[in-house]
Design brief:
Distance between the termini: 22 Å
Largest sheet: 12 strands, mixed
Helix content: 25-40%
Order of helices and strands: EHEHEHEHHEHEHEEEEEEHHHH
Mean pLDDT: 87
Structural class: alpha/beta
Strand content: 5-15%
Number of helices: 11
Number of strands: 12
Length: 383
């Protein structure tokens, strides 16, 4: 059941409450290291290339909200690939080393290979190429994998919530078959887009029975070439009807798998990594769990999110974004825009999941008016 206090607002109006970004009076030069108010660097940028998706997963874009009458962004509002690349270059100058392309479903964006080619040419202040990855539902991956790799994409993350065809078709709510997603994963491996990560959102009472079948399949069939990750069902956006009793804690996921396949904890590969890593004790690969509800990891979050129309969000659970598009399409110089980005990040203190844990998941209290802020939809800024 949805929270009746939430109002569904078209994506085209998201973030209008915040004024357009201005160039700060005191310049913030790009030095390759930019810290927020909690001392967190900005190292990862997630760029949403479209607000559209061909799936209607209930935890992200439920069909009763995102129906045929839903008003998506007009094409003129979307950033061009050149504008995205310009911003990405400025973010890299501030310390971003990894870019993830998201959506919606990013493979719906026409000629996305052209964007990847442009991003592949960006270098960090140390002269290193950026790590380029993309998250997809896998529906178009079989036909696009080789072209994506040729354009410069290094790896992909595929969303897959079940191997049971009936369960999967129910969850994506457009009757899309599991077999086509698995074919996309095979094509990505053949193209060299690896190691591949497969993300499973676990929703208690819906697909928790698929945890072990998923673990068995990816450890047996693909020889450790795929890292399966289990994500706690999160309270993103305002339309997915989230309830705490539908969250299956990651600790329970690990316990279920460990009972059949003993696991050993692994160290994080990079600071700020979202997933806790676990290796199979017999050496047949690893899994991960992302526990933003039960074990918040805000303290070292280093991710910035850019919407497809140029708004900068500082948290997956944010209510408003910082509109960079007027600067892009105005007379602002690269130094001006870089300074604006730096000023925004230096003021960042977001830690939604940690605060939720402190106040309790059922506390929906808001500002002085008592109205809880409406969080941005995950489909608008990516997961």
């Amino acid at each position: 059941m949805k929270n009746s206090s939430n109002t569904v607002i078209p994506i085209s109006t998201i973030g209008r409450a915040r004024p357009a970004v201005a160039v700060p009076d005191v310049a913030v030069p790009a030095t390759g290291l930019l810290l927020d108010r909690l001392g967190r660097p900005m190292t990862d940028l997630r760029i949403s290339v479209t607000d559209r998706c061909n799936f209607r997963c209930s935890y992200c874009m439920p069909k009763d909200v995102f129906d045929k009458d839903y008003k998506y962004l007009p094409h003129s509002a979307l950033l061009s690939f050149e504008e995205m690349t310009r911003l990405a270059r400025l973010f890299a100058a501030h310390g971003v080393r990894k870019i993830r392309l998201t959506g919606g479903e990013p493979l719906l964006r026409k000629n996305i290979e052209g964007l990847i080619e442009q991003l592949a040419g960006i270098r960090t202040p140390a002269g290193e190429p950026l790590a380029l990855t993309l998250t997809t539902n896998g529906s178009l991956l079989a036909r696009k994998a080789s072209g994506l790799r040729a354009a410069g994409l290094q790896r992909v993350t595929v969303s897959l919530d079940s191997l049971d065809d009936a369960v999967f078709r129910h969850m994506n709510d457009v009757d899309f078959p599991v077999a086509d997603v698995l074919a996309g994963i095979d094509a990505a491996l053949a193209a060299g887009l690896g190691p591949i990560k497969v993300n499973m959102v676990v929703k208690r009472g819906t697909n928790e029975q698929e945890i072990l079948p998923m673990a068995r399949y990816f450890r047996t069939h693909l020889g450790g070439k795929v890292v399966l990750r289990f994500i706690e069902y999160m309270d993103v956006g305002a339309t997915n009807g989230w309830r705490m009793d539908e969250v299956l804690p990651s600790a329970d996921v690990i316990a279920r798998i460990h009972a059949e396949f003993p696991l050993m904890p692994l160290e994080a590969t990079t600071p700020g990594e979202t997933a806790q890593r676990w290796a199979y004790a017999d050496g047949s690969g690893e899994i991960g769990v992302i526990s933003s509800v039960t074990q918040a990891f805000c303290h070292d979050c280093s991710r910035a999110r850019l919407s497809t129309e140029g708004k900068l969000y500082l948290c997956l659970f944010a209510s408003t974004g910082h509109d960079l598009r007027p600067l892009l399409r105005g007379a602002a110089s690269d130094d001006d825009i870089a300074s604006a980005i730096g000023h925004i990040w230096q003021g960042r203190a977001d830690r939604y999941s940690e605060l939720r844990a402190l106040r309790g998941p059922d506390d929906d209290s808001g500002d002085a008016s008592g109205k809880a802020p409406r969080r941005v939809e995950m489909s608008y800024i990516g997961g």
